[in-house]
């Protein structure tokens, strides 16, 4: 049995993208190739870090909507503009897996059900 803790990447995300991910419409999240994200996403040798899960919050704080997903890995490349990636620009691509947990999102998720 492996008792090592799960490694979770925590990031804030805008409401629009949060809802698309919760609906299963957006399968990737993007971050710019900037110093702040280099420190968070790269190992000292320049390789990409490994994360078990990605936790996205709609804003900051403990009571804000939060979704935890499986991480399918990180790569560098050009993302999907319809999912928020800048056109013709390399970014960090966070590949999102299945939803593990959704917290504090009743109002937001209500919007999903009202639109169906």
Look at the structure and give the mean pLDDT.
89
Structural class: alpha+beta
CATH architecture: Roll
**Terminal-residue CA separation:** 42 Å
Which sequence of SSEs, written as H and E, runs from N to C? EHEHEEEH
How many discrete domains?
A: 1
How many β-strand runs? 5
Write structural notes for this entry.
By secondary structure, this protein is of the alpha+beta class. It has one domain: Archaeosine Trna-guanine Transglycosylase, Chain: A, domain 4 (Roll). It contains three helices and five strands. The protein has a five-stranded mixed beta sheet, covered by helices on one side. A hairpin with an 8-residue loop joins β3 and β4 (66-77). The radius of gyration is 15 Å and the shape is globular. 21% of the residues are buried.
Layout of strands and helices, then pairs:
Blueprint lengths: L7 E5 L2 H8 L5 E4 L3 H7 L11 E5 L8 E12 L13 E13 L2 H10 L1
């Amino acid at each position: 049995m492996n008792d090592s803790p799960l490694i979770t990447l925590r990031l804030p995300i805008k409401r629009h993208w949060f809802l698309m991910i919760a609906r299963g419409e957006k399968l990737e999240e993007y971050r710019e190739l900037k110093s702040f994200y280099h420190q968070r996403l790269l190992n000292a040798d320049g390789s990409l870090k490994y994360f078990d899960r990605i936790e996205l919050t709609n804003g900051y704080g403990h009571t804000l909507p939060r979704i935890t997903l499986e991480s399918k890995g990180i790569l560098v490349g050009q993302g999907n503009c319809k999912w928020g990636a800048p056109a013709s620009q390399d970014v960090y691509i966070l590949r999102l897996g299945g939803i593990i947990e959704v917290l504090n999102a009743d109002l937001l998720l209500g919007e999903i059900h009202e639109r169906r």
